Amino acid sequence: MCTGRVSFTRTAPAYNARSFSACRDVATMPSIHLADGRRVPYRVRVSPRSRRVRLTLNPRDGLVMVTPPGVDRRQLAELAHEWRDWVARQLDALGIDDAADAATASVSLPDCIVLAGIEEQWHVLHRHTPGVSARVLVRDERSLVLGGAAGDLSERVAALRRWLMRRARDTLPPRLEALAAETGLDFGSVTIRAQRNRWGSCSAHGDINLNYQLLFLPPPLLRHVLLHELCHTVELNHSPRFWATVRRFEPDLDARRAEMRRSWTHVPDWLAAAP
Q: 26 vs 18, 42, 43, CA distance in Å?
């Protein structure tokens, strides 16, 4: 599995949800006030499957507190205050200057989409077509027409995402097959998915999943992820033997791994911030 996206999680002890009053999402975002004066907003997400309160931080989603149903918001605020020093350290480690940017980013539709991994650039023409479902049409070799109601940003972003998925299905499997032939590492099947926190994964049967957002990575990083998953077909772990296998085909492995720590920066804001 190749995550690429750097994130941190802090978990609290388990709580008996019945001892707290019901908690609902609030319209305004609560904040953690750090010792250095920074104010860091966070979102509260209630998860029926969660057994403990946890705080997650990554450049895509910002700061999110995940809680079981029924935990009082005052208890959540107390936990957030207790974790303020941890939040400050992780912000610095991730190089995030303003967590509010990730937490409250607005969606702005693109006029140009650069797919660095496959060396393509597409111009996007916007058409206001009220009453018609948002969709993307290929106008010519490098131009797209994005239709739909102009005010329905989420649907228009979803239409662009569906087009990206189709483009990934057309272009990523052939690149994986070519690299498999080059390295002699075989695999079962390949599926394009929309994972939120993984660039790819490999099953015990050698079936590989690839994230469609790999289209945005520079070619060396795209190749690294494909190679990473191919090496999992012989070493389904991250042991020293696995990394030795990767290094056989990628002498600059250390540089690639360092670059992958900030691989999320290659995903455009309009796609990363969309629901």
A: 20, 11, 9
CA dihedral 73, 78, 83, 87 (to 10 degrees): 50
Q: Using an 8 Å Cβ cutoff, are 44 and 36 in contact?
A: no
Alpha-carbon gap, residue 212 to 167, rounded angstroms? 8
Rounded CA-CA distance 266/243 in Å is 24
Q: Give the phi and the psi of residue 51 in degrees, each rounded to 5.
A: -105, -15
DSSP-derived pairing of the beta strands 143-147 and 190-193 = unpaired
**Can you tell me the distance from the alpha carbon of 153 to that of 33, in angstroms, rounded to the nearest whole number?**
32
CATH H superfamily, domain 112-272 = Metalloproteases ("zincins"), catalytic domain (3.30.2010.10)
pLDDT per position as a tens digit, 178-193? 999 999 999 999 999 9
Q: Percentages helix, strand, coil for the chain, rounded to the nearest 5?
A: 40, 25, 35
What are the tens digits of pLDDT across the range 35-57?
Answer: 888 888 888 888 888 889 998 88
